[in-house]
Amino acid sequence: MNKSLKIVFLLLFALQVLPANAQKIGYVDSEFILNKHPDYKVVQQELQNLSDAWRKEAQNLDKEIKDLYVQLKAEEVLLTEEMYQQRLKDIQQKEQEAQAFYSRIFGIDGQYYQKQAELLQPLQSKIYDAMERVSRKNNLAMLFDKASVPSGIIYTDPRHDYSEFVLDELGIEDNN
């Protein structure tokens, strides 16, 4: 009986100690946090203005090319074959320049995406630092980002959402 009493106490002690060693985890929604940050709206507006200007420039190039085709079609009967081919070649050159412009601005490593990264980097760093401080304050072993692709998070319990804490850390009011 003495031996079984020791085993019971040992089990009770183990049940008390094991939960204390469990790692705490949580998650945030960085997209939610980013959309609540006032600086993000400024960055978005600046990017929109740049994008609009570049799109207008691209549209002007397209219009110029269309006008050249219309002009070529109108003057087709007056031109020699050699002159016609030269104008056609010039128009095709203009089309290639327009395509190069579009790729240089909106391509994978284009100026638009470089500018976006440049403008968002300080804001993302600020948010990351706030996430780190919240994780340390709440003794979190892991903090997942619900918005990251692919997140792999299938279900989240709102009790473990630390997004509001990050907003508080950044000094941002959540006015839904």
Description:
Belongs to the Skp family. Pfam families: OmpH. This is OmpH family outer membrane protein. InterPro entries: Chaperone_Skp, Skp_dom_sf. Helix content is 71%, strand content 5%. 10% of the residues are buried. It is mainly alpha-helical. The radius of gyration is 30 Å and the shape is elongated. It starts with a helix and ends in a 6-residue tail after the last helix.
Structural class: mainly alpha
Number of structurally distinct domains: 1
Helix and strand string, N-terminal first?
HEHHHHEH
Helix proportion range: over 70%
Number of strands: 2
Estimate what percentage of residues fall within beta strands: under 5%
Mean pLDDT: 85
Q: Spatial order of the strands in the main sheet? A: 1-2
Radius of gyration: 30 Å
List keywords for this structure.
single chain, 176 residues, mainly alpha, two-stranded parallel ribbon, 6 helices, 71% helix, elongated, Chaperone_Skp
How would the blueprint of this fold be written?
Layout: H1 2-20, E1 25-28, H2 30-36, H3 38-75, H4 81-106, H5 111-137, E2 142-145, H6 163-170
Parallel strand pairs: 1-2
Task: Write a brief caption for the model.
The chain has 176 residues and is mainly α. The protein has 6 helices and 2 strands.
